Each structure stands twice: as C-alpha cells, then as structure tokens.
Amino acid sequence: MRKSTLLLLVPALLLAACSSTKPTAHSVDGYHRPLPAPSVASVRQDIPEAQATDTVLPTATGPFGARAVISVPKAAPTGKFVVKPLHTGHGRAAHNGDVAIAAYSAVVWKSGKRLADSYKKDARPRVFPVGRGAMLTALDRAVQGQRAGSRVLVVAPPAAAYGAGGNAELGVSGKDTLVFVVDVIRVIAARATVPGSQATVADTLPRVRMDHAQGTAAITVPDRDAPAKLIVEPLVTGAGPVVKSGRTVVLQHSSTTWKSGRGELFMSSRAAGQPLITAIGRGNVLRGWDKALVGQRVGSRVLVVIPASLAYGAHPPKGIPANSTVVSVLDVLAAV
Fold it and tell me: At 48, is the pLDDT very low, low, confident or very high (cuts 50, 70, 90)?
C-alpha cells in the first residue's frame, strides 16, 4: 500500500539500532488507512484564508462522534475555503503544537462520493500535532482554535486539499472540492503531563523530579552499575484504558544514558514542547519502550531502564555511546 510522504514520522532517535534489519520510519497510523496528506512537493503555497461562511454551503446532520450525513447542494462550490463551527464544545481550544484527536466524515462535492473516514470498519480517529503540517491542510486548519467537543464543517477547495494533482487513489481530481465534518474529540496541551503523586522507588533506580509548571523532567542516575535486565517501574498509575499493541499513543518522554551520578538528557519531547505520536508495539520506537508500554494504562508515568540490547546496541545514533543503557521517563497521555 502506498503511503503519503507527509504522514507523521517517528524520530530516528527512537528507532533501535540493534535490529537485524535497517530501521525505517513508519507512519503512526499504518494499521488503518486514513485520508493521506499530499506529498511535500505538491503542497500549494497559495492556500486561501479560511472563511467562516459562504453563500452556498453543504449541510450536515447526526450526533457528535458519529458519521455525519452530508448533503451537498446542486450549485457548484464558490471556491472559498470554509471552516464553520456547527457546534462549539467546552474543552481545551487547540493551539499550534497541541495534539488533536479528531474524527471526520468526508465527501466529494461534485459527485457526493463518500471518502475513507474515521467511521469505517477498523478505522480510528486521527491523532496529529496542530499547525505542524502533518495533516491535510483542510483538517489541520479545521481544528485550530476549536475547542474539544466541537463539530466543524469544512469546505476545502483543491488548494486546501490535494491541489491540482488530485489523488487518483481516492478518486479525487485536481478540480474537486471536498467537504468534511470534523469532530474534535480531545485536545492535549503541548506540555501536558500526567497528574498524580509519584511512587517512591528503590535507591538502586534513577530518581525523577517533575516540574509540572514547566512540563519538564529531571533524571538522576544512582552511583552504581546499570542493571542488566529491562526494568519497568510505574511512578504514577493511570486510570485510563489499557494500552494495546498497535494503538496510536501520545507520549511525553525524556531519556538519558546510564552514567553514574549524572542524567543529562539526550532526547526530550518535554524540552521540545511537542509530544510524540506513534504506534506502540510495532517496532516504531525502542524495543524497550514497546515492551514497557503495552499493558500500561493511559494516565501513567513509567520509569524504564533499558539494556543496550533493547535500546541502541553497538550502533547508536551520533552522541550516544555504544552499548549504553538508556533511562526513559514516559507519560502516557492518550491511546487511540
């Protein structure tokens, strides 16, 4: 199956170098077939500004969280890019860098043909960083500024969808206007952390100090040899759903290598202000993460000490010593 070149990709640092095959980046939602984004090369620079309404508009019926019934008028579209809230929710508003969890229904204006959406069998809501160009422009713009719980009607001319090239796989021509109804299910702040007091860990394990105001984590490694086996130590146990293999998870993470008495971070979503979105249990991240997170509950914070065989092995990325034990602190913010 052909994949888009603008789907969310897992950073290379999160891929274990000890695999028997060369690591590759995978789309975070490869276990179902969502509406793809256009390729980087085909993204139009003249995307029109979104309008709040138009003289000719489709209508949508049905409850929030279910496939919308979209009725398209017989009149031709005006060519305007429209983002019109149908219902305003009461949750967090989506800002650039936040993570949105959204479901959508979609049709082609001219033909009324229904496109692949979030409600077909085995499909799930989309999970993506807001305003980062990781989604089809129409869907990305649809959630910006909207509150969780909102339903939004989107009329997307070609410039806000697939451009002049269209999308032959979906049966969308370069002249087709698309109509979406987007349900903003949840918005996760860019620097969100899981709430709750941390459990006390043994003196033989690294210590984690959270700064919830800044959304940062500090890791202090004990002055002793690293353990030889994978250690998974829940610091906060969440009350959300159990994470299953293949689900898309939203994580805050901070990682260091085991150096006695130290803890300089070499990787941190918290410092970057951008949670990680990835499929878990599918080899997209360090093997130690896959093993540690499957079975945890959403809302958990987990300390993971990962031996080299489940991390980067003898061929790590630049700046990480070979055969390093890795210490990670992972907040499980969502699983879809």
Answer: confident
Residue 18 bridge partners (DSSP): none
> What does pTM read for this prediction?
0.85
Pairing of strands 326-335, 248-257: antiparallel
270 with 191: CB under 8 angstroms? yes
**Count of alpha carbons within 13 angstroms of residue 1, beta-carbon side:** 12
Question: What is the distance between the alpha carbons of residues 26 and 258, in angstroms, rounded to a whole number?
Answer: 28
- Tell whether 264 and 312 lie within a shared domain: yes
Cα(10)–Cα(286) distance, rounded to whole angstroms? Answer: 11
Q: What is the DSSP letter of 14?
A: G
Interatomic CA distance for residues 269 and 146, integer angstroms: 24
Residues 184, 215, single domain; the answer is no
| Last-in-domain residue among 188, 219, 250 | 188
CA distance 181 to 242: 29
- Residue pair 190/252 in contact by the 8 Å Cβ criterion: no
Q: Are 333 and 296 in contact (CB under 8 A)?
A: no
Residue whose structure tokens are 């983002």 = 83
For residue 306, the cross-strand partners are 326
